[in-house]
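User: My instructor asked us to take a sequence, write out its structure as tokens, and then describe one feature of it. I'm not sure where to start. Here is the sequence I was given:
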Amino acid sequence: MGIEMYSVRDELKKDSRGTVRAIAEIGYQGLEFYAPYFEWSHAQAKEMKKLMDDLGIRCFSTHNNAAYLNKDNIQNAIDLNLNLGSKYVVMASSQPEPGLDGWKEVAEALNFASDKLEGSGLEAGYHNHQLEFTAVDGVKPMEILAKNTKPAIMLQLDVGTCVSTGSDPAAWIRANPGRIRSLHCKDWSPDAAKGYSVLFGEGVADWKGIFAAAESVGGAEYYLMEQEGSRFSELETAKRCLEAYRAKHY
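Assistant: Let's start with the prediction itself. The structure tokens for your sequence are:
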């Protein structure tokens, strides 16, 4: 179990090294850096890798703006991820042209990135939000992405946003065997006053069924706790979510 560092974004801005230390002390085994990492120098990335090595944690993956994976920027993404010891370079979101053809263009961009990354031992991934599970002309964009991308491309499942659209995460995992190699463990409540601010286990996600599908069919290699904000501080939220995960013996 790792953590998406967007969950502690304010702390990360104030003190990146101190925040990584705090995450390790809480008990997380790894992490996923998000888009601002792309502004680091290669020396900074190497220093962060040394810190993680000293703490005994890993950078499982990074979240990237779509532009980071185009022909002009992908070499920098490759170099930074290799320096961090990351395995997956994930497109965190996209802004496709209207209609299903726009999503096919996103798929093409992912295939391009995958081809470039594979030569360096890295793998591409895509992270969903609500948009990808909201039907366009009767088809969910995630279905277009799954159908039109190479099987090597990981489909990183954001559970909370999937659930919020009325979709079934476990069914999606079973429909895409071997491709759901990581999941963002974000919960969701239909209570408008709570939404994504609930802690892990406080929402309506069927975690037992989701984890069972992820591990038996999905090919899950790691999980990432994610919080957009709760009634507690960022680090306290991270701590409580991990405790809740462990308490349920998942």
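For the description part of your assignment, you could build on this observation: The beta strands are 2-4, 30-33, 58-64, 88-91, 123-127, 154-158, 182-185, 222-225. Try explaining in your own words what that tells you about the chain.
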